Amino acid sequence: YPPERVRNFSIIAHVDHGKSTLADRLLELTGTIKKGHGQPQYLDKLQVERERGITVKAQTATMFYRHANNQLPASDQPDAPSYLLNLIDTPGHVDFSYEVSRSLAACQGALLVVDAAQGVQAQTIANFYLAFESNLSIIPVINKIDQPTADPDNVKAQLKRLFDIDPSEALLTSAKTGQGLSQVLPAVIERIPSPPGKCDSPVRMLLLDSYYDEYKGVICHVAVVDGALHKGDKIASAATGRTYEVLDVGIMHPELTPTGVLYTGQVGYVISGMRSTKEARIGDTLHQAKSIVEPLPGFKPARHMVFSGLYPADGSDFDALSHAIEKLTCNDASVSVTKETSTALGMGFSKVQVENPAALASNPGKRIAACWEPTVIATIIIPKRRGEQQEYTFIDAQRALLKYRLPLREIIVDFYNELKSITSGYATFDYEDSEYQQSDLVKMDILLNGQPVDAMATIVHNQKAQRVGRELVDKLKKFIERQMFEITIQAAVGSKVIARETLSAMRKNVLAKCYGGDITRKKKLLEKQKEGKKRMKRVGSVDIPQEAFHELLKVS
Ligand code: GDP
Ligand code: MG
């Protein structure tokens, strides 16, 4: 297959608009997978995706399709030229735009799927711009036209208004009933350019993804940009300079299918004796060994979307946790990890960029001139209410689009859930990183019997400190059980205590109910009490249940 007969494309959509279902139909239509193969949404491979119903890790499949004249069905044209189509599946969820842009790097076009009833949503907009900035040809697909509430004309008008897409370009489909699906692949072939690239240059390819297979070792997904890659070739990594011999090369059809060669513009897999996925850096350029090539642009660095601090419940499990995290980071370049230590929780890991509040002095005094905090540009689409609201952009008569600059921390805790609940689920949300802005931030310490608990320290806006301190202290009072001595719970900014509660002492005598002298029963009860204590974290002499830590994270 010369580049003229190769097309590389992705499907992008707001979550639930039908991307995975459409991908499955296209794989069936081309005979790549059997119809009713019993595994819905073939491309959603990972277990986590099945459980949550979202596509997390991009998967790729190669299909073959005969196409000469889109007026006639392919079956009537046995001599029609065959095309090699690479469908690069992208995750549709807002949290994974890093993977979306990664997938798009190997594409020349994208199907932009929009639900005919729901219309353009926040991630439709985000994904459109990712594709647009990558100079991809965009084919609008208005899906789910079988739904009784489908309004394709309204969606066409939205696409025109928001993206300047000509309404005549839109394909109308139902991935459920099959209606309109026969137009999709002809449009891919006719409207998406073939991959650029120099066929007779030394081989140069982009490393799209990698994973470890127990039997085959490290498997790299690559897009061959220039030249051809043959089994037996010697290749080198631009990032590490290491060289490898190509042991196996082929396509995902959809399972690994050896072909012995990948030509310019093709997407497939390479096995080259790498020992760990750490050697297969996603976004790296692999090229013919001993030739000097310019590395490909790679990808935008991962944008961190999910932040968490991880600690083993039992300190002796630290090595096991460490091992598990290492495995995860091996397979996923978008996760980064740093070690951290908390006096309350022992040793643990933070998944990057979470600045430990402990690092900020409680009494910065004159040493810190200013605090800066990260902000985001948030795009929110909400059902329109009555009234004059001139600062909105209207998508159509029913919905408005709002753009705000918000501090990042405002959206980390529960923002999405709250937005959904106040709009009865109708609002959609997306955001992109923006600059740092100067902010009046202070560190708030939580003290138990006068001792600061560093896992509970938070950084808050000065104006919110009073309210947050009060909430934290109230929550803690609920979750910490009374103990055999009095406990004072305080929230403090610097040396100033802004909220305080006291838990009075109580002796919790588990033996009180035991009459007589049954020593084994007494022992059992004492054992049980000990077990319960294991689930507590002991700070100084105060036991703090796990739930208290979880609850505290919800206050901001
Ligand atoms: P994704 O999140 O974009 O990958 O969406 P899915 O492919 O998982 O589809 C979301 C839901 O919409 C599933 O329940 C599908 O069965 C359903 N769905 C997909 N396409 C259609 C369609 O054309 N018509 C109808 N009525 N439902 C569809
Ligand atoms: Mg999906």
TrEMBL record:
Keyword Transferase: no
Pfam entry (one): GTP_EFTU_D2
PROSITE patterns to which the protein is assigned, alphabetical: G_TR_1, G_TR_2
Enzyme Commission numbers on file: 3.6.5.n1
Entry keyword annotation includes Kinase: no
GO biological process: positive regulation of translation; translation
MF annotations from Gene Ontology: GTP binding; GTPase activity; mitochondrial ribosome binding
Subcellular location: Mitochondrion inner membrane
Stretches assigned to the Tr-type G domain: 4-196
Keywords, in A-Z order: GTP-binding, Hydrolase, Membrane, Mitochondrion, Mitochondrion inner membrane, Nucleotide-binding, Protein biosynthesis
Highest taxon in the source lineage: Eukaryota
InterPro entries: EF-4, EFG_III/V, EFG_V-like, EFTu-like_2, G_TR_CS, LepA_C_sf, LepA_CTD, LepA_IV
Residues reported in the UniProt entry to bind GTP: 13-20, 89-93, 143-146
Family stated for the protein in its record: Belongs to the TRAFAC class translation factor GTPase superfamily. Classic translation factor GTPase family. LepA subfamily.
Protein name: Translation factor GUF1 homolog, mitochondrial
